Amino acid sequence: MAKTTTFAKRFDGARYRPDTQWAYGLLGNPDQESEFYTQIDERTSLFYEGTGASKGMMMKRPGVGQASIGTRTDKDGHWLAGEHTYRLRVPADVPAKLFWSVMAYDADARCFIDNPEEIADRSSLMDVRKNVDGSELAPTPAGR
Fold first, then answer.
1. Complete DSSP assignment for 44-106
2. What confidence score (pLDDT) does residue 78 get?
3. DSSP code for 31
4. Element (H or E) spanning 136, and its range?
5. What is the DSSP secondary structure assignment for residue 111, as one 8-state letter?
6. Domain ranges of the chain
7. What are the respective helix, strand and coil percentages of the chain, to the nearest 5?
8. What is the pLDDT of residues 46-82, one digit of tens each?
9. What is the pLDDT of residues 11-43, one digit of tens each?
């Protein structure tokens, strides 16, 4: 149930933008209490994806705190699968003051993916290739 609640979030405000498949990783209040009920689904999702929360981890305003978003589906809503290849284009002018980072996790083991490069993330701190329109392609290891 925790995995389902996390992978297919149905609670208010979960979607990063209505035109994407991306959803916020951390939602609700840090104490998971609303005026009339305990945010059980939000709490379940939070603790499936992480182990703790603070107000600074749940900010949606650029430049303050951090925001974590994630997706388990492609642009058409199909579940991501290891036998397929995907391309991530980071739009120009990402609203990230310090940096952006993309990490790949093993959904069953709940840890970083195991790969020959031993690198589970790509970030703006790496050598990023810019497209003509200013968007970025998440970098690949040298020689790939």
1. HHHHHH-S---GGGG--STTSS---EE-SB-TTSPBP-TTS----EEPSS-S-SS--EEE-EE
2. 92
3. T
4. strand 136-137
5. E
6. 1-78, 87-144
7. 15, 15, 70
8. 777 765 555 555 555 655 566 677 888 888 989 888 8
9. 878 888 888 888 877 666 667 788 888 888 887
Residues 91 and 100: their CA atoms lie apart, in Å, by: 11
Contacts of 3 (CB under 8 A, 6+ apart): 48, 107
* 42 burial via Cβ count (<10 Å: 0-12, 13-18, 19+): buried
List CB contacts of 47: < 8 A, sequence separation 6 or more.
2
Task: Tell whether pTM > 0.90.
Answer: no
pLDDT surpassing 60 at residue 144: no
Cα 2 from chain centre: 17
| DSSP element (H, E) containing 42 | helix 40-49
| Interatomic CA distance for residues 134 and 74, integer angstroms | 22
**Domain covering 1-78: architecture:** Sandwich (2.60)
Strand 69-70 versus strand 23-24 pairing type: antiparallel
